[in-house]
From TrEMBL:
Species of provenance: Meridianimarinicoccus aquatilis
Domain Catechol dioxygenase N-terminal residues, every copy: 23-90
Assigned protein family: Belongs to the intradiol ring-cleavage dioxygenase family.
Cofactors named for this entry: Fe(3+)
Entry keyword annotation includes Iron: yes
Record GO biological process: catechol-containing compound metabolic process
UniProt name for this protein: Hydroxyquinol 1,2-dioxygenase
Molecular function GO terms recorded: catechol 1,2-dioxygenase activity; ferric iron binding
Iron listed as a keyword: yes
UniProt keyword list: Dioxygenase, Iron, Metal-binding, Oxidoreductase
Domain of life: Bacteria
Residues covered by the Intradiol ring-cleavage dioxygenases domain: 122-285
Length: 288
């Protein structure tokens, strides 16, 4: 096409695509470019703004490392990660939520009833529940990948004072589908705001805070994998999570209990001498 104009450039782009390209790729690319071109036309995007946008993307790429995922963070703070989660959540299962940029693969096995608190300060938190199918039946052998922040608000991948798998564990449940572990109460924290994504937050007058939460990835053969988080109902940032991760069914309550009520059969049984926090949260998986 030798006569490309601002009115026809979108159609020209589409005409350049091969006839035999995969249909889904054609659908996604067509929609992406239509919206991208419409955005530029609607805002009358300037050369300076275009250069600033390119520099922003290059800045994200420059700061990317094995432990720092700036593009994931960008997707999170724009709400795209949560939107994709919600588009593909099963209505009969536990809601999905954002993975976030701090998951570390290969966590060590954590037995049912195991402890992740170790020598960290703060009251003990006992988290337990049952992994079920949509009929309410336990799912034997389901695997729960758990991670969270330390009391200082940092994930292990952010903190040189923690080992790589601090506050990470991989638990395989038994025939009853029950999981249980002890840890510390997670704290609210800020997403990294020292990079390009922090510039977006500042430009929009937004804060970088997330409510405290526990991360779960739950998998089982024959079921859809679930990436989710659970949030306490008393967190001050529950209604203004900067990555839009909160869902109504993911909000739970911590209950303070006396040490005398700490149950048997756990790694810390007989060792808890002060009041502890307890939360019960069941997880429902949908079949594939």
């Amino acid at each position: 096409m030798r006569n490309v104009t601002k009115e026809n450039i979108t159609d020209v782009f589409i005409s350049y695509m091969a006839d035999d390209m995969p249909p889904r790729t054609r659908e996604v690319m067509t929609s992406l470019v239509r919206h991208l071109h419409d955005f530029a036309r609607e805002t009358n995007l300037t050369h300076e703004e275009w250069r600033e946008g390119i520099a922003f993307l290059e800045g994200c790429a420059a700061i990317e490392t094995e432990d720092r995922h700036e593009f994931v963070l960008l997707s999170d703070v724009l709400g795209l990660s949560s939107l994709v989660d919600m588009l593909h959540s099963s209505p009969n299962a536990t809601s999905s939520s954002v993975l976030g940029p701090f998951h570390v693969s290969g966590a060590p096995p954590l037995p049912v009833g195991g402890d992740m608190k170790r020598d960290f300060g703060g009251p003990v938190l006992l988290a337990e529940g049952t992994i079920r199918d949509t009929d309410g039946k336990p799912i034997p052998g389901a695997v729960l990948d758990i991670w969270q922040t330390a009391p200082n608000g940092l994930y292990a991948s952010q903190d040189d004072d923690q080992d790589m798998f601090s506050f990470h564990g991989l638990m395989t449940v038994g025939d009853d589908g029950r999981y249980a572990f002890t840890t510390v109460k997670p704290v609210e924290y800020t997403v990294p705001s020292d990079g390009p994504v922090g510039g977006i937050l500042n430009a929009c007058g937004r804060h970088p805070w997330r409510p405290s939460h526990l991360h779960y990835i739950v998998t089982a053969p024959g079921y859809r994998s679930l990436v989710t988080e659970i949030f306490p109902d008393d967190d001050p940032y529950l209604d203004q999570d900067t990555v839009f991760g909160v869902r109504e069914d993911l909000v739970m309550s911590y209950k303070e209990k006396p040490a005398s009520e700490f149950p048997d059969g756990l790694a810390l049984s007989g060792k808890v001498t002060e009041p502890f926090l307890a939360v019960q949260f069941d997880v429902t998986l949908a079949r594939e």
